[in-house]
């Protein structure tokens, strides 16, 4: 979006503009300037969080150009984790690592002082599978590239490594990470003095009916028979981690994140933190909420998973503590009004409803989201308008 900085606040001091459909001669009154925190997650594979924030800002500004917009794209630790943080601080480091199938893959992580922020999807993400997920890739995909990112960060002096978990193509319980360091015991020795953080909002354990293979295996191309094989392999890898570290982590919350990379990190002594909270702390979200009069957030699909502490509802809960309303723009909305109320979410808007189909909402995601944001701005103006025509 030309001339607009996705990392800071912006607004204009020019005259007010007419709302869509309003005659220009009726636009002499200037509405009060509202400070809006625009903080979406990514919209699946159609828009990353930074692009989504930019489009929402463009749509809102077209209707309410005098408002001050603070762009703060979000992530729960999955794809976009590094980009979101890099929009606020740090230095990117780029290197080539093995991708999920072993092919050389460019990946980057963020360095801020002695802390390295790594996004596992950079090295083993589903989007790195050239032909998409299949039975073969579900079994073959490895976390080795993630291990190489961690190893590089440590070699470069990092004493704290935060690993964002999500969007992976592998279900190997961190076996590839162990390979990077010459085995499970080698990984334990190499990382014994490093503060590790597993950044994820996924609460699933490694094993069992709610574990990595059972829940996420099918999304990665696994059939029912292969899910069983992956579960058995994860059991063996979990045992190897236990033998090397003395930590039994297979049934801990978050161990199933990113195909079991969560289990590997926990076995290596990591603490688990909400990915959304890591972003909030690192980007000064509380201070921004103190000043905001409205939060606009969103994601690809607002559904039951969203209600379990993911980015949108975590942000809504934090905003409510600051007395700030939260409105959600999502690709699809699949929750009831009562569920949204319980999560602290105000108005809900669906990109699919506006576009008329899922296909159009995805293929035209950017202009559709910008148009939806303009409509949302109109709705806000209508709701706060007084009989005098001023806010």
From TrEMBL:
InterPro entries: Glyc_kinase_flavodox-like_fold, Glycerate_kinase, Glycerate_kinase_sf
Protein name as catalogued: Glycerate kinase
Record keyword Transmembrane present: no
Molecular function as annotated in GO: kinase activity
Family: Belongs to the glycerate kinase type-1 family.
Region ranges (Disordered): 1-26
Organism: Tsukamurella soli
Keywords recorded for this protein, A-Z: Kinase, Transferase
């Amino acid at each position: 979006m030309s001339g607009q900085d996705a990392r800071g606040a912006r607004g204009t001091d020019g005259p007010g503009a007419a709302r869509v459909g309003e005659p220009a001669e009726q636009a002499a009154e200037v509405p009060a300037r509202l400070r809006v925190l625009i903080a979406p997650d990514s919209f699946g594979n159609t828009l990353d969080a930074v692009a989504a924030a930019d489009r929402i800002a463009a749509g809102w500004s077209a209707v309410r150009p005098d408002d001050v917009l603070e762009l703060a794209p979000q992530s729960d630790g999955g794809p976009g984790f590094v980009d979101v943080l890099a929009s606020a601080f740090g230095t990117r480091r780029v290197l080539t690592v093995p991708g999920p199938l072993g092919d050389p893959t460019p990946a980057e992580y963020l360095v801020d002082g002695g802390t390295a922020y790594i996004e596992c999807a950079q090295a083993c993400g589903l989007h790195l599978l050239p032909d998409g997920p299949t039975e073969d890739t579900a079994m073959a995909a490895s976390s080795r590239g993630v291990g190489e990112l961690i190893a590089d960060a440590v070699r470069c002096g990092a004493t704290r490594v935060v690993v964002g978990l999500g969007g992976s193509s592998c279900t190997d319980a961190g076996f590839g990470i162990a390979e990077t360091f010459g085995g499970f015991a080698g990984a334990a020795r190499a990382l014994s003095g490093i503060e590790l953080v597993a950044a994820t909002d996924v609460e699933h354990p490694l094993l069992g009916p709610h574990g990595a293979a059972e829940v996420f295996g099918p999304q990665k191309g696994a059939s029912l028979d292969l899910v069983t094989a992956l579960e058995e392999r994860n059991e063996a890898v979990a045992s190897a981690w236990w033998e090397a570290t003395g930590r039994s982590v297979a049934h801990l919350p978050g161990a199933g994140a990113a195909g079991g990379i969560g289990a590997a990190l926990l076995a290596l002594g990591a603490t688990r933190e909400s990915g959304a909270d890591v972003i909030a702390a690192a980007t000064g979200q509380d201070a921004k909420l103190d000043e905001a009069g409205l939060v606009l957030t969103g994601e690809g699909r607002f559904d039951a998973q969203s209600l379990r502490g993911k980015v949108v509802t975590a942000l809504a809960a934090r905003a409510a503590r600051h007395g700030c309303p939260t409105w959600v723009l999502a690709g699809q909305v699949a929750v009831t009004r009562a569920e949204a109320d319980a999560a602290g979410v105000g108005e809900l808007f669906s990109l699919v409803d506006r576009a008329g189909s899922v296909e159009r909402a995805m293929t035209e995601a950017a202009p559709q989201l910008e148009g939806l944001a303009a409509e949302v701005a109109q709705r806000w103006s209508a709701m706060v308008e007084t009989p005098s025509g001023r806010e």
